[in-house]
Amino acid sequence: MANNTKGRRDFMGMALGGFTALGGIGALYAMKRTWDPLPSVKAAGFTTIDLSAAQPNVLNVEKWRGKPIFVLKKAKDMKTDPRDVVMGDDHFLVAIGLCTHLGCIPAYLGDEHKFKCACHGGEFDASGHQIFGPPPSPLEIPPFKIDGTKLVLGEEGPEYQKMKADGLTV
Ligand code: FES
């Protein structure tokens, strides 16, 4: 009897452990799917990202000077914005992926076309504007230069300079 109870408890423990492990793998897979990096090259404070492989409404997270950088190609049914990086017909959100409240990394909810910050519930739309909760300002736009289909982070090209002059980068 005692053995039976122990056996059942062991089985339950193993089953729960299995679920936890599966959950962990699922979460990692989901993270990988939503956080795909694009082909990129890093050199001396600059990160060059090739945007030609970007898929609509799939968030890519790059790294620039130790910060996560969100790169999101907008699908045709998504709202464009003066903060967009425009390449030909394509519009991209390019923003530092840190919540402007206290610096957590928001998650992208593709179905809702918005970012949600798990720390205090702040939300940003797909153009980086704060739309709910405590964030006081939009997601910041890092200095960038457009070079054909490539984006160079860390260099101020004319498109970035114009955005900055219009007060759109912060
Ligand atoms: S850090 Fe994002 S809502 Fe507080």
Automatic annotation (TrEMBL):
InterPro entries: Rieske_2Fe-2S, Rieske_2Fe-2S_sf, Rieske_Fe-S_prot, Rieske_Fe-S_prot_C, Ubiquinol_cyt_c_Rdtase_Fe-S-su. Residues 64-153 form the Rieske domain. One of its GO terms (molecular function) is metal ion binding. It is found in: Membrane. Keywords: 2Fe-2S, Disulfide bond, Iron, Iron-sulfur, Membrane, Metal-binding, Transmembrane, Transmembrane helix. Pfam families: Rieske (PF00355). The chain crosses the membrane at residues 12-31, 91-109. The main subunits of complex b-c1 are: cytochrome b, cytochrome c1 and the Rieske protein. NCBIfam families: Rieske_proteo. This is Ubiquinol-cytochrome c reductase iron-sulfur subunit. It comes from Sulfurovum riftiae.
